Structure formats: structure tokens, C-alpha cells
């Protein structure tokens, strides 16, 4: 669609006064949801992640990483990233935790820094639960051209243990179509920063291209990847991300519906969005909701918006390749909304982004009539390993006979290297580790994960 100049653009960068912390209720079908402030006095919290320690992990654009107690709202700072450059929309952005965090305590962040101009990089830190610190930064990818707007960037670790990172076009519009550039892309990396062998282009981290400024990423249980993306003055988008596909920017805005766009889309394998908004709403954080706590949201996407200052439920169709309905909530109640996080108990946590020091807060949404029980998942089975370190074999021992269980061994990159099955009623099993490269591995059965050292 042709660009339309809009006076609303300036509103995206305006400085908003703090909104008062308030508790409110609203109806989602037959369910009453309570929205209440969890913690206040924050400055542009950018990312929220639910940790395996049952705390919220948070980034703020100025460079601070913290853990937040989801019951009391207490903020426990971990690190002020030393080389973050917060200017305009740049600064500390997305974050994700290693899926085997208990045994591989790695935290990944993406942020802007200064090196002969503004750049962007992906860095891995190591967490010490004992000391309550993050240390040993390891740069996995750097030197990505940036400016004070259009930096992306969300991080998402997929079920196959690869990492997605979204990048903006840095106001260099043609770079989104340039496969030699990392701008305007969704990148896919192994968890050590190397390029997966099955990426669309050998040796390139580019997974999809033709993006303007994607700031939401989520994966559905089916494996499908969904992204939210900022349009220009028109056509904010929700996209189904597919390997190697072109998403059109800057030649196409939204759907292919002008003469030039139709020709470009036909010639360049362009994937049209699932839904668009004109005028723009400033799409931000995106999560899939699949909890029984708020049954009317189950199987939907939850989208945080900045300019529109509301939470949007997007109902997916039966095959998850289209949007069958939309409903808005909390319009204007808390101001601009940046991040959305869903806890295992079905609570939804939102961060505000009101562009003033101390103006922001975290808000928790919950159905207070929903009772969380201990039977929502399989009980954790504590697996014992010996000898550990191991050289040729390791004995796997369960504390008591159980139903048949699968044991998965993963390397430090999260790749499955061994799979073995405990027959029902058996408590001991011998696992060969011959052929494995010496190093650190994780061994998982059910919800129990143990560290294994192979010598």
C-alpha cells in the first residue's frame, strides 16, 4: 500500500507523564480479570521473561537487568550492562534464558552500543544463583549497524534449541532486501553464536528478510513462529515467519494490493501478514496464551501496543495461519505497553513504556477465581547420575519405580545427543557416553534436569 503521511508519527516519540498505579477489573467473556500494579518506579522496562526460579527477569532500556519477585514486586538488580548506549529508542532491548537454565545458566541479551557510531550486538552472560550476579560476557554477534530508532530487537529460543533475533532496518530502508546486510531481518543462530547448517543461505544467520522493525516474537506449540512488526505511517503487521521468506519491506507495506506491490510480491516470494492496522498502533511484545486460567484467551496471541496503549487478544484460526477475531483490553488505563509475559500459572505480566524516568510499572493480570493445583503437570522425578564426571558409561537411577520415562541428554548448545527410555517399573539404567565430546551436558527426565560432566 502507498505510504500516507501522518501527524501521529510524533506521538510515538512523545514523553508521557506517569500514569497513576491503579487496580481495575474487566470481563473476558464470563471470566473476571483483575489488573493490578506489581511494581512501580521503573524506567522503560523492555523485556519480561518468566524464569525457572519462578521470578520475572526484566531488562530496562537504560541497561539494568533485574529479577522481580512476582508476589511482592521487589526488584533485585543483577547487572548494569556497562557499554549500553541508551539514545532515542536504542539501549538494552531483548533477553532470553537458556532452556536448561538450571544446569546451563546462560542469559542472552541484545543491546545498542557505540563503536564508531551506534551498533547492536548479542551477548551471553553466565548467572550465579549463589552470588546473585551475571558475569563472563561472551559476544556472539556484533557490529550490526544501528541508529536511535528501528533496532528491533526480540530474542526467542525455539524448540530446536536455536535462537532467533529480530533486527530493524536502522532507517536504511533498502538494507531490508539486501541479503548481505543483517538489518531488517530475523536472524537464526545456534546457542553458541554459530550459524545453523540448515539456515536458508549457508553461512548466513539470515532466516527471513524484508522486515522494517519487528519487536515481538513467539512460537506456538505447533512450532509456528509469529512476529509483530512496526509499519511506517500505515500497516503495522502480525506475520507468520517462514524459513527464507521475504516480508516485502520497503517495497511492500502490509498486504500486496497496489500494482507495484503485486508485481514485487509475485517475483520475490513475499509472505503477506496475517493482519494489519492502519493507522498504526505501534505493535510491541507478543505472547501465545494457552492456560486454562483465562479460558477465553486460550489459543490466542496477546499483543502489547505502544501508541494504541492497549492489550489486544488475537484469536487464531484452526490452523494458526490466520486471525479469526480481535478484542481490545485496558485501553488507556496504564499508557503505552511494551512487553507481555505469561507465567506457568496463567497470569499475564505487562510492562509500561511511558518514556519518562520512574514513570513505568509492571502490571499483573489474573483470574483470582482460578485455583492453581499441583496436578497441572507431572511430578518432578529426581534422577541420580553416577559416576559423575563419567568416562564411558553413567548409571541413571530413579528413587522409585515409575511409569515409562524418556531420558534426554543434551550438549551445551541444547542439541539432543542421546535418548534412552526407562521401562515402566525399572529404577536403574546404564547409559553409554562413549563418542561424546568431553564437556558439560544436561540430562533430563520429566521436569528433572541434572548436570553431567563427560571426561
From TrEMBL:
Domain Glucose/Sorbosone dehydrogenase, first and last residues per copy: 42-356
UniProt key word Signal: yes
Keyword Signal: yes
Span of domain Secretion system C-terminal sorting: 385-449
Superkingdom of source: Bacteria
Signal peptide: 1-21
Keywords for this protein: Signal
Name of this protein: T9SS C-terminal target domain-containing protein
